[in-house]
Amino acid sequence: MSRNLTQPELGKWLGLTPQAVARYEIVGVTKATALAFSAIDRGLKPVKLSKSDYKLADERATGKPKEEELNE
User: Fold this and answer.
1) What span, in angstroms and rounded, lies between the C-alpha atoms of 65 and 57?
2) Is the pLDDT of residue 70 over 60?
3) pLDDT of 3-23, one tens digit each?
4) In terms of Cα–Cα distance, which of 29, 27, 8, 9 is closest to 19?
5) Does position 69 have pLDDT exceeding 70, yes or no?
6) Is the pLDDT of residue 39 over 60?
7) Residue 68 in 3-state DSSP?
8) 3-class secondary structure per residue, 5-57
9) Counting CB atoms within 10 angstroms of each CB, which of 3, 17, 36, 48 has the fewest?
10) What's the pLDDT score for residue 66?
11) Which of 66, 45, 46, 64 is nearest to 55 (CA)?
């Protein structure tokens, strides 16, 4: 499905490099990428995640804070 975006433009939206976008074009997209395309279609703006955003996502995925994992 075409969105008329260049690889660098799509990479900016998805937080990927143009090279990573090229690899997805070759092997296909994941469900997460398809959801990102849907968000772009609905006009959502790209978001730059902070280190604390990544830490919170990791804590929610593992069920414990990152510091506790490092001390085990």
Assistant:
1) 10
2) no
3) 688 888 888 877 778 888 787
4) 8
5) no
6) yes
7) helix
8) CCHHHHHHHHCCCHHHHHHHHHHCCCHHHHHHHHHHHCCCCCCCCCHHHHHHH
9) 48
10) 59
11) 66
16's tokens: 């990927």
Structural contact between residues 37 and 3, judged by C-beta atoms closer than 8 angstroms: yes
CB 7 within 8 A of CB 22: yes
CA–CA gap between residue 34 and residue 3 (Å, rounded): 12
For residue 55, what pLDDT is reported? 84
What are the tens digits of pLDDT across the range 42-58? 787 777 778 888 888 78
| Total count of residues recorded for the chain | 72
- Nearest-angstrom CA–CA distance, 71 and 29: 36
Give the containing element (helix H, strand E) for 1: none
8 Å CB contact between 3 and 10: yes
